[in-house]
Amino acid sequence: MTTRTDDAEDERLAAQAQTGDRQAFTLLVRRYQERVFRFILRMSGARDEAMDLTQETFMKAYQALPAWRPEARFGTWLFQIARNVTLDLLRRRRTVEFIPLDTGLPDGAALDPQDAAPLPEEQLADKQRIQLLERALCELPVEQREILLLRELENMSYADIAAMLNIEAGTVKSRLARARVAVLAHYRHHAGEK
Amino acid sequence: MTAHAPDMATLSAYLDGELGISERRQLDAHLATCRPCALQLAALQALAADFAKLPQENLGFDLAGVIEGRLAVAPRPRGKPRTARWWGLLPVSLGAAASIALGVGMGSALFGGAAVTPRVTAMSVFDTLPPGGLCLGAESCYGKGARK
């Protein structure tokens, strides 16, 4: 989550980078690299591609920097670029709308031998829910997946999400609710509930 | 209260702290008495807690260092050239129109308004004599009548 202080620092660094200060831009990269990578990874489901796209995102941001204005929060602007490069990849893969559930767990989500070791019941239930959530995220349509990630992991406000996705705040509210309902339905389906 | 389907959009916005004060108070009061809505809200809260527990994948290296190297050889970004608006071209077009009008006016003044047709000089492309003035033959230079 970003604070006002973070935003002010971003703004200062971005303004410096606009004047050609590469060091300032490097500092911005350092501030955002992990978050951008995680967002792209969750969107694309492939680690190597996510690493490449994270790099591409920052290079594109650098080239587009003269167009950035302080009225737009730097983080939101950067995530917009990250989203665009990821959607380009998904379009190329032609998997924008749906990834079949039966393709298995996403990279890194498979049970390792350690998982077979007995765990306290609650911990096991937690782990299963997390795995279900990861599978559900892969299964969701891209527009629902991205909005969930922006809200739940990036803690963006509805106004920021609306600005980033270029939709109304009311649409953010309804789309987010639909996405949450879809994940809950996925939980229930796998728990054998109706 | 009559049975109803929970309004997931409102519950979801409540969870995110995106409701107005009065709407939030109204829902607080409703949740205290409506079990289906309270259960749905609890499910949404559990989902949010699950998101917080998702494994935090890391890049595993400092990308900033890589980017720094790439920026050193990358061209410095330039602002997009401004797209020309029609009114931006106004001074140019006005100037051009004024120049043409001035030219026409001066021409009219010089020639008294009468149209002057330029004299066309007939050009002889091929001469009967080849270059160097050499005769093609005696007959072409000296007519039969000339030889006596």
Please tell me about this protein's structure.
The complex is a heterodimer of chains A (194) and B (148). Chain A is an all-alpha fold. Chain A has 2 domains: 1-96, RNA polymerase sigma factor, region 2, helix turn helix motif (Rna Polymerase Sigma Factor, Chain: A, Orthogonal Bundle), CATH 1.10.1740; 102-194, Arc Repressor Mutant, subunit A, CATH 1.10.10. Chain A has 9 helices and no strands. Chain A has helices spanning 4-18, 22-44, 47-64, 74-93, 113-116, 121-139, 142-153, 158-165, 169-190. In chain A, helix 2 packs antiparallel against helix 3. Chain A is elongated and about 60 Å long. With 148 residues, chain B is mainly α. Chain B is built from 6 helices and no strands. Chain B has helices at 8-15, 21-31, 35-53, 63-73, 90-111, 138-141. The chains are: A mainly alpha (194), B mainly alpha (148). The interface between A and B is large, with 46 and 36 residues.
Summarize this, please?
The complex is a heterodimer of chains A (194) and B (148). Chain A has 194 residues and is mainly α.
How is the secondary structure organized here?
The complex is a heterodimer of chains A (194) and B (148).
Chain A: H1 4-18, H2 22-44, H3 47-64, H4 74-93, H5 113-116, H6 121-139, H7 142-153, H8 158-165, H9 169-190
Helix pairs in contact in A: 1-2, 2-3, 2-4, 3-4, 4-8, 6-9, 7-9, 8-9
Chain B: H1 8-15, H2 21-31, H3 35-53, H4 63-73, H5 90-111, H6 138-141
Helix pairs in contact in B: 1-3
